[in-house]
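stage 2 :: seqdesign
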């Protein structure tokens, strides 16, 4: 954080002109990311990209587990019909 405060202009120039990306930490804990505007527009401003929260990812994982369970049941049923 101290470097960011002392060299904010230089860091912004490096981000904009040289396309550098910075991970901003406080006491070794990641707090934020500084990325070029082009990256932001490509990643977050695209209506076709959905940003998933951790809770949404857990929902997908739960659905996958349920799918595997049903798949196993279907395999057992099919094997019993042979």
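stage 2 :: out
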């Amino acid at each position: 954080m101290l470097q960011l405060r002392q060299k904010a202009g230089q860091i912004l120039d490096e981000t904009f002109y040289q396309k550098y990306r910075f991970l901003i930490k406080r006491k070794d804990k990641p707090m934020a990311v500084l990325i070029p505007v082009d990256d932001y527009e490509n990643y977050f401003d695209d209506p076709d990209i959905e940003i998933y929260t951790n809770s949404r990812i857990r929902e997908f994982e739960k659905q996958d587990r349920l799918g595997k369970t049903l798949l196993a049941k279907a395999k057992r049923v099919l094997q019993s019909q042979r």
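stage 3 :: structure notes
- The chain has two domains: 1-51, 52-82.
- The chain has a mean pLDDT of 83.
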